[in-house]
Task: structure prediction
Amino acid sequence: MVTVAVMLILLMRFVSPEMAILISTFGGCFMGMAMERDG
Result:
């Protein structure tokens, strides 16, 4: 969840809010999958 929040704040400076939400959500999903595989 922290990953999504940080990505959202950073991306909102460069892209539209809708795209920032979409990209940060996908980023959070991929981060969750990566952490689950390692654990």
User: Anything to note?
Assistant: Residues 6 and 12 are 10 Å apart (CA to CA). The chain has a mean pLDDT of 90. Residues 17-38 form the longest helix (22 residues).
